[in-house]
Amino acid sequence: MQERLLRFVKMHGAGNDYVYIDCFAERGPADPAALAPRIADRHRGVGADGLILVEPTPVAAARMRMFNADGSESEMCGNGVRCVAHLVVARGHAAPGAVTIETGRGVLTLVVTPTGPRTAQVRVDMGPPLLEPTGIPVVAAAGGRVADAFCPALADREPWWDACGLDPRMTCVSMGNPHVVFYCRDVGRVPLEQVGPRIETHPIFPRRVNVHFVEVLGAGQVRMRTWERGSGITMACGTGAAAVCVAGAITGRTGRTLAADLPGGRLDLEWVPEGSVFMTGPAEEVFEGTWPLAEE
Questions:
Q1: Is 77 a catalytic residue?
Q2: One of 77, 151, 164, 245 is an active-site residue; which one?
Q3: Which pLDDT tens digit goes with each residue over 184-193?
Q4: Residue pair 137/206 in contact by the 8 Å Cβ criterion
Q5: Is 164 designated active site?
Q6: Which stretches of the chain score pLDDT less than 50?
Q7: Cβ(136)–Cβ(143) under 8 Å?
Q8: 8 A C-beta contact, residue 7 and residue 22
Q9: What's residue 144's pLDDT?
Q10: Helices (DSSP H) in 60-138: which residue ranges?
Q11: Residue 117: exposed, middle, or buried by beta-carbon count in 10 A (0-12, 13-18, 19+)?
């Protein structure tokens, strides 16, 4: 058994933090799914919501592979892809401006505006939302969109419903990964650590689901909290904020242009009619380091 030092960059987008491996300059780990829980551990590792590999690809400036803190691989991460775009520009793998990144939901186009040597503001074309149940996926009783629909994961009334003013109906959206959105009067009073994992793993979500609770502050602003599939409570979720923008528009609670306030900061969203959701937010490097990686 040999050991080598794996170089990494810790970055975050609105507090949603990952460990990034620049595979243009570094040989990536042979088993990233096994590495992710160890390196993401906030007590015994670097500490992060997961692990992201930034790899060369013939179809874009770079390819993003994302692994949650539990080691499961996810299709897409809005905050993560902004940081990937910043990294490829900051490390000279692509020029500032329009950058393409290959993800699990296809090739996305981002516009990177550096704001400092270690920071950038990045706008992402997240692509159009998927609203059909089979595309999310969610097991639905009838065809068509799942909007303000009965949620069997919240079938029995509990005391916290009244405390936070919960509307227990769900709206489901995919942004390349699955999301379920609930609305309430006070997101701060939702026991997210209890209800999040219960909804994430409910049988109606065959590939599990990201869970969001949303407080509407006005037609163009919301406050939200997230339980992410495979990572738990996170400071921000970019694809989740995009899903919330879509959910608000299709249920009439908010408009198509939305400012989403998350525990880690603000993301700005716009869902153009019958088209893509655009998200704008920060990308910031925190520090660089090395991780001892044992190999055969």
A1: yes
A2: 77
A3: 999 999 999 9
A4: yes
A5: no
A6: none
A7: no
A8: yes
A9: 84
A10: 78-90
A11: exposed
Q: What amino acid occupies position 24? A: F
What is the model's pLDDT at position 153?
Answer: 94
Q: pTM for the full model?
A: 0.93
User: Measured between alpha carbons, how far is 243 from 130 in angstroms, rounded to an integer?
Assistant: 10
Catalytic residue (one of 164, 184, 237, 245): 237
Q: CB neighbours of 261 closer than 8 A, spacing ≥ 6?
A: 217, 221, 222, 223, 224
Predicted local distance difference test score (pLDDT) of residue 295: 78
Domains of the chain (ranges; CATH) run 2-124+282-295 (3.10.310.10), 133-275 (3.10.310.10)
In one letter, which amino acid is 136?
A: I
8 A C-beta contact, residue 6 and residue 294: no
Please compute, for residue 230, the number of CA atoms within 13 A of its CA located in the half-sphere on the CB side. Answer: 26
> What pLDDT does residue 296 have?
65
Q: Which residues pair with 18 in a beta bridge?
A: 11
Residue type for position 26: E
Residue 195 one-letter amino acid: V
